[in-house]
Design brief:
CATH architecture of the largest domain: 3-Layer(aba) Sandwich
Number of helices: 11
Number of domains: 3
Shape: globular
Strand content: 25-35%
Number of strands: 22
Structural class: alpha/beta
CATH topology of the largest domain: Restriction Endonuclease
Helix content: 10-25%
Largest sheet: 10 strands, mixed
Distance between the termini: 48 Å
Radius of gyration: 24 Å
């Protein structure tokens, strides 16, 4: 009997996440199945024009999985698995079988980003769907972990366990159960959480997070802004926001008394002007209706939860264009940074991996053609932003990134091109004289063209 499911993702569809979600409900995909089996649904009209509407299919024996892109209405997880017959037009995620957040960042690279920053995705989901019966999964994909966790990561993972979040990592093709590997245990009471966090030594010249409790009042001292430019005085410190939402939701769970506790946030560095505007921060959606106060400030109004968790991505976007071009190009992809998707490393010769700094200007895709000894840098843009795309392809903007490529591939010629989303591919000729050639184009109806290597 054929089993059918639908996977929604905000990412470039990846087989590892799909396999793990299905395994959580007892459906196993063979190890031999790779990303090559995830096929975009491309059709042709009577004139032979190719068309894509943002849907992929994965077929394995008696298993059929439809994959679609979605757009979150708030801070959302990366993947969701549904039965095929669930109505997804409502944007209701309550009937998901599995939800999954994925990252390549491990404890080795960044304790806060690898753990705390991710928890907000789950606490927001729990707030919107408190009666959720599905499975929650945190997945560290292709990440390397040491034999012993840092104290920071241990606290974060215990908070995840308390919030019923399953934890797995993938290393060299092997799935590792994080809970079993590091013997992660859930917290049992409020004081257990407080003592565990406070046991981490404070660092000099660092605003360490500290917790205290007096009866039903829980005091949490932590900085919530990044302290620079536009981020100063506003809630913008994502790892600390994740920690705060995790702590509050975990304490609410172990005390088993909703809205019984009061949370007082100290040394937060947030200005009153921020609270005057009812801002839609990730924090508010993850602690809706929970009693919280910020020392020295008055919360005038809190945003309400969105009525939908997601919408299906139906419009042709920059993301859909670059993901499809990534798939149809005959050249090897050695780097991708699709809009809103995870940032990859640069793949060098002999499987050398080169990391790219989070703040380093970078293109959307980089292809390698060994026969021609060419590296092709691609920038994806909507038609109205073509000028911006051409500017971003300039040597000055990508100077550091190109420097990394030249070190990895000193004998290769570097070329540049555009991947664009336009009103109609029938009008593509009007862009033939741009500073950088259009290599791929898709229009609002999903018709696309892949121009030849020599253009």
């Amino acid at each position: 009997m054929t089993q059918t499911f639908t996977v929604l993702t905000e990412e470039n569809p990846n087989i590892d996440e799909v396999k793990l979600m299905l395994s959580m409900i007892g459906v196993n995909i063979p190890d031999s199945i790779s990303n090559d089996f995830i096929i975009p649904n491309i059709t042709s009209d009577s004139e032979g024009k190719k068309k894509f509407k943002g849907v992929w299919t994965l077929e394995v024996d008696d298993l059929i999985i439809t994959i679609k892109l979605f757009k979150g209405k708030t801070s959302s997880v990366d993947y969701m698995l549904f039965k095929e017959d669930v109505d997804l037009t409502t944007g209701n995620a309550a009937e998901a079988l599995v939800i999954l957040e994925s990252t390549k960042t491990s404890d080795n690279a960044s304790r806060n980003t690898a753990v705390y920053q991710r928890i907000t995705k789950f606490t927001t989901f729990d707030t919107m769907y408190p009666d959720f019966k599905g499975i929650k999964v945190m997945f560290w994909c292709n990440s390397i972990w040491k034999d012993k966790l840092t104290q920071t990561a241990m606290v974060g993972m215990r908070l995840m366990e308390t919030l019923n979040i399953n934890m797995y990592s993938l290393n060299k093709g092997n799935i590792i159960n994080i809970k079993e590997k590091y013997e992660i245990t859930a917290y049992e009471c409020c004081d257990d959480i407080i003592n565990s966090k406070n046991a981490i030594p404070e660092k000099k010249q660092n605003c360490s997070i500290r917790l205290d409790r007096l009866d039903n009042d829980v005091y949490i001292s932590l900085k919530l802004d990044k302290g620079n430019d536009k981020s100063s005085g506003v809630i913008s410190h994502d790892p600390n926001v994740g920690f705060l939402s995790a702590i509050i939701n975990a304490i609410e769970k172990v005390t088993k008394k909703p809205n019984h506790n009061n949370y007082i946030i100290k040394n937060h560095n947030i200005k009153q002007q921020y609270f005057d505007k009812c801002p839609k921060s990730k924090l508010w959606y993850s602690i809706s209706n929970i009693n919280i106060a910020f020392e020295g400030c008055v919360i005038k109004k809190r945003p309400v939860l969105p009525s939908q968790y997601f919408t299906i991505e139906s419009d042709m976007t920059e993301k859909l264009a670059t993901i499809l071009y990534d798939y149809v190009s005959p050249n090897e992809t050695i780097f991708s940074n699709h809009s809103g998707c995870a940032l990859t490393c640069i793949k060098g010769p002999n499987d050398i991996i080169c990391s790219v700094g989070q703040k380093m200007p970078r293109p959307d895709i980089v292809f390698r053609n060994d026969e021609r000894k060419e590296i092709e840098i691609i920038e994806g843009k909507l038609e109205k932003e073509l000028g911006k795309g051409i500017k971003q392809l300039s040597n000055k903007h990508l100077e550091k990134f190109i420097g990394l490529l030249k070190k990895l591939y000193p004998d290769y010629t570097i070329k540049k091109g555009l991947c664009i989303t336009i009103k109609s591919v029938d009008c593509i000729d009007k862009y033939k004289n741009l500073k950088f050639p259009v290599k791929f184009a898709i229009d609002n109806k999903g018709f696309f063209i892949h121009l030849s290597q020599d253009q």
